[in-house]
Write a structure and sequence with these properties.
By secondary structure, the chain is mainly alpha-helical. The protein has one helix at residues 2-59. The mean pLDDT is 90.
Length: 68
């Protein structure tokens, strides 16, 4: 009976360690996902600003460069 109880406690200790390890992996992945989302948001904002600048440039007539 004592040997069986010791086996169960050992397995439980390993399972608790595995759960802690998996939890750390999940937390790390969530943090990385948050960073990637922030990067995508910033890139999309910059892209939109660039596109808006292009619209403004297209609305003005083309000028000759100063060396002409």
């Amino acid at each position: 009976m004592d040997e069986r109880l010791l086996d169960i406690e050992t397995k439980l200790a390993y399972l608790e360690d595995m759960v802690d390890s998996l939890n750390k992996v999940i937390v790390d992945q969530r943090d990385e996902l948050d960073r990637l989302r922030d990067s995508c948001r910033i890139m999309l904002e910059r892209m939109q600003e660039y596109m808006d600048e292009g619209k403004d440039a297209a609305a003005t007539p083309a000028e000759k460069p100063p060396h002409y």
